[in-house]
Write a structure and sequence with these properties.
alpha+beta, elongated, 274 residues, 8 strands, five-stranded antiparallel β-sheet, 7 helices
Length: 274
């Protein structure tokens, strides 16, 4: 009898047979190694640096070079000092001490000179400031600059035309005596040589300029002194009222005297020697 053939379960067909590659020769391995090195070298050279990396590299190189030069210079100097004789070292120290003393002396002299210059400059500035202040004060008195400050405004109405030059002059003298510092009547600045004259047909001339009622006195001064001086019994206000004129006084915190005069050079008067 024939023996039954073994059954094929199919497991052998499922297993994949591994490819059988022939072993690589030695020459092929060498070629492959060289090819890998070339690819690695091509990837690394030339180096691809960013702008920031390049700047950092330059700075580091410069810093290292500077430190190297400084260290070398210091070492050379120290080497020279180590090789110097004791007498030379003493002489070098003496020279350094002398130089330091000279520098300290020069510094002190410069500081003294600076202090003198600053003092002189401050004195010059103070003198200039005082001069400017004095010029302004004299300008107010001479009527060549505007003046402002507290004061009063005196308005004299003269409907009957009875106010004469002497009455205005008396009013001016009373204001000056009470401490008036700057005075303007209508549009005429009152100064030390101001004069009053009567005009035929009515009105008054002040320094040759005709002014007419109402007469308006703009006065810079202390209102608390000026007002009582005008209102004293028998004073300016009562005198004007007796001539049918009316005087009105207005105290103000700030008045402006803006009429100016042209200064005239004295024809005969000269400064007297001290």
């Amino acid at each position: 009898m024939r023996e039954p053939e073994p059954e094929d379960d199919g497991e052998g067909e499922d297993e994949a047979e591994e490819p059988d590659f022939p072993p690589m020769s030695v020459s092929a391995q060498v070629v492959d190694r060289h090819s890998g090195r070339r690819r690695l070298k091509a990837a690394m050279w030339p180096p691809r640096l960013s702008r920031g990396q390049l700047l950092v590299a330059v700075l580091l190189f410069s810093l290292g070079l500077g430190l190297a030069i400084q260290v070398r210079s210091t070492n050379d100097h120290h080497s020279q000092l180590r090789g110097a004789r004791q007498e030379d070292l003493v002489r070098i120290l003496d020279e350094l001490d002398s130089r330091q003393q000279r520098l300290q002396q020069e510094k002190a002299e410069l500081e003294q000179s600076l202090a003198k210059l600053e003092n002189s400059s401050n004195q010059a500035k103070e003198a200039q400031e005082q001069t400017r202040k004095k010029v302004t004060e004299l300008g107010v008195l001479a009527g060549t600059v505007r003046a402002t400050g507290p004061g009063i405004v005196l308005t004299v109405d003269d409907p009957q035309g009875q106010v004469k030059a002497d009455m205005l002059l008396d009013t001016l003298q009373e204001l000056r005596a009470a401490g008036a510092e700057a005075i303007q009547i209508n549009d005429v600045r009152v100064v030390v040589n101001t004069y009053f004259t009567d005009v035929s047909g009515g009105g008054v001339q002040i320094d040759g300029k005709k002014v007419s009622a109402p007469y308006r006195f703009t006065v810079v001064g202390n209102p608390q002194d000026l007002t009582p001086a005008l209102n004293i019994p028998g004073g300016v206000v009562r005198t004007l009222e007796s001539h049918q004129a009316r005087a009105t006084i207005s105290q103000q915190q700030r008045v402006v005297v803006d009429a100016l005069v042209d200064p005239k050079t004295p024809q005969y008067a000269k400064p007297a020697p001290k």
